Amino acid sequence: TQLLEQSPQFLSIQEGENLTVYCNSSSVFSSLQWYRQEPGEGPVLLVTVVTGGEVKKLKRLTFQFGDARKDSSLHITAAQPGDTGLYLCAANRDDKIIFGKGTRLHILP
Amino acid sequence: DAGVIQSPRHEVTEMGQEVTLRCKPISGHDYLFWYRQTMMRGLELLIYFNNNVPIDDSGMPEDRFSAKMPNASFSTLKIQPSEPRDSAVYFCASSPGRATYNEQFFGPGTRLTVL
Fold first, then answer.
1. What average pLDDT does this structure show over A80-108?
2. Closest Cα to residue B23, out of A94, B31, A69, A56?
3. CA B68 from chain center: how many Å?
4. Domain A5-108 maps to which CATH number in 3.40.50.1580, 1.10.1740.10, 3.40.50.1440, 2.60.40.10?
5. Is B86 helix (H, G, I), strand (E, B) or coil?
6. What is the pLDDT, as a whole number, of residue A47?
């Protein structure tokens, strides 16, 4: 059983559209991170959310941590080809970081 | 500043051969992590070190896998003997503090293919 379920697994949309991807769990976490991974590279941290209900913005990306700290969403406004990549959520369990399998996003020009 | 350095970037070997992957973490980072990434299982933590000491190796799949960190600037992950199911991308990451609240900096990975 995957601790962190990410959906959708794959998403392909046109440039300029908006999208939301999700990271869900039945467990409560003290913090949750989002990473982006481009082909041939390692993941790069985008944001860490700590407080239930917290919303963080990074340019066109909006991250939200659920009130119960069990889930999170990432919303991208006006997607651009440079947003293409694998988006991974990660959370701490038993003092180790656990990653979801990710959402593979492809933005069509 | 140099990030996490991994070598080799690509490794192709035959079943039964020994494979050694190398990692140089970012200077000053106390934590070092080894991950394996596959399409089926995603990114899995294999082992991590704190101040060169292995803390948790529960993710190491079996005795064929071993990892060492002889000093603060170097770590190795060894597979002996290698099997086709070990084919994956192996990442090394380092962090300045406990992973819970700190960013992990990943290397570019080593793509391992075992024939």
1. 91
2. B31
3. 10
4. 2.60.40.10
5. helix
6. 94
For B98, nearest residue in chain A (alpha carbons): A95
Residue of B nearest to A34 (CA): B103
Token pair belonging to A30: 């003290």
Among chain A, residues having any CB pair with chain B shorter than 8 Å are 2, 30-31, 33, 40-45, 48, 50, 88, 92, 95-102
**What tens digit of pLDDT does each residue of A7-62 get?**
999 999 999 999 999 999 998 888 899 999 999 999 999 999 988 999 999 999 99
Q: What pLDDT shows up at residue A77? A: 97
Cα B99 to the chain's mean position, in Å? 16
Residues of chain B with pLDDT under 50: none
Residue A86 makes CB contacts below 8 A (sequence gap 6+) with: A36, A37, A38, A43, A102, A103, A104, A105
Instruction: Report domain extents, chain A.
Output: 5-108
